[in-house]
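User: Before I run my own analysis I want an independent prediction to cross-check against. Here's the chain; please return only the structure tokens and, at the end, one sentence I can use as a sanity check.
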Amino acid sequence: MEELWFRPFVWTDYRLAVLFTVIVPTILMIWSLVQQAQAISRLLIIYWRVASLLMITVYLLVPAWGVDNSGFENLCGQIGFITALIARMLIPISLWFWVDLNDEIKDLPPSFLKLVVVSWRWAMTVYCSLGAIANVPFLSCAFSLELLSSPFCQVWIEAPLGYRSIIHGDATQGFIGFLGLLGLSVYVLYFGYFLLIRLGKQGRSALEQ
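Assistant: Structure tokens:
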């Protein structure tokens, strides 16, 4: 692939994503359960539900690798560039939206767990906000098949392709795309239910979320 000046930054972004969106919240989830910090545990459960769109995005991007893809595979990739941006917008919202959780976490006695959680929330907010801004130019990959097959867009698919080789080595690109669209369908249904029904009943309360 043609060497691009921003390729190292793309790979750095994926590495930061693994750290901030997977490793740290996993540790915090286990930690909060051990400490029986219910407010933090509830916040992290909500986070994982929202952040699952990032994993769905990985599955959607994989099929778009290469220049001789079918229409279905290209469609998956185009949708993937859109969901990548949406995920970065939704994650910070999910971390700060809940009034009751914000108050409960604020009222927790000082502890190292509380300090790490608050620091992680702010770090995620900055990371996702900067990432969303950086992803805006690449949104054009979702609306041009010619651009989708160019190095400009393909560089974003290198890391998802590496994930596929480790987890789904024998799976076809079409099958990976099907899994991505299936996951996205479930996500959209749940999100629509939240917006149209649960949000109206509970507002910004995380009760029963």
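Sanity check: The mean pLDDT is 94.
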